[in-house]
Specification:
Blueprint (H helix, E strand, L loop, with lengths): L5 H24 L8 H14 L5 H24 L3 H18 L3 H15 L4 E2 L2 E2 L7 H16 L6 H24 L4 H17 L5
Antiparallel strand pairs: 1-2
């Protein structure tokens, strides 16, 4: 977060909020499985392999779909060059729109994990993710380390950015839960519109 300018930080926070929103919608739709938080699904996979082997295929497929989404998004980002933010977010919007149209929960979840995997390619540096948007453990670690350095007087500049990134995801999850419980038929359409708006915003950024 410290290596990008204020405009791109705002985009990152809004994209993290989208990830939290979609994860909450998926969580409430899929028996407490995640569509963006693969650490949680990996834990569920380990538990299910011992406690409920017949259910282990669900988290395994979700993890595999997420990896495929990251892969596809990375290929698209590489081909799109300086327009990669726009291209990736258009892909995410399309996948979320497809999920909103899907008549089957299985297809919906598949499209959601593909979208969330692809979303992580929005911010790249040298072909690798520079700001993770669907997982916040690293952001919380960097926030806490920066805060500690600030308190000790040894640095810590920019720790607020990592906190804001986490808050974006958290507030997005609150919004997703509210939307899913209040307007279940519209919840994913709102996510698709959100992603499309981010794509239009990203299109204004000439350098990715």
């Amino acid at each position: 977060m410290n290596a990008i300018d204020r405009t791109r930080r705002r985009l990152a926070i809004a994209a993290a909020a989208l990830a939290g929103y979609v994860d909450a919608v998926g969580f409430l739709s899929a028996d407490r499985y995640f569509v963006s938080f693969m650490s949680g699904n990996t834990t569920r996979l380990g538990v299910d392999l011992i406690a409920a082997p017949r259910s282990a295929a669900i988290p395994a497929l979700l993890v595999a779909g997420f990896v495929l989404g990251v892969f596809g998004g990375a290929v698209l980002a590489a081909k799109a060059g300086p327009r990669r933010k726009f291209a990736v977010l258009v892909l995410v919007a399309g996948l979320l729109g497809g999920a909103a149209l899907s008549p089957r929960i299985e297809l919906t979840l598949a499209l959601l994990v593909l979208a969330m995997g692809a979303l992580n390619n929005t911010f790249q540096r040298d072909g690798e993710v520079s700001v993770g948007l669907t997982y916040m453990t690293g952001a919380l670690v960097r926030f806490a380390q920066g805060l500690a350095a600030k308190v000790m007087g040894t640095g810590g500049k920019g720790w607020e950015g990592w906190l804001l990134l986490w808050l974006g995801l958290a507030l997005g999850a609150v919004s997703g839960a509210y939307a899913m419980l209040t307007w279940p038929d519209m919840a994913l359409w709102l996510a698709a519109v959100w992603a499309a708006a981010l794509a239009l915003f990203a299109r204004r950024l000439s350098v990715s």
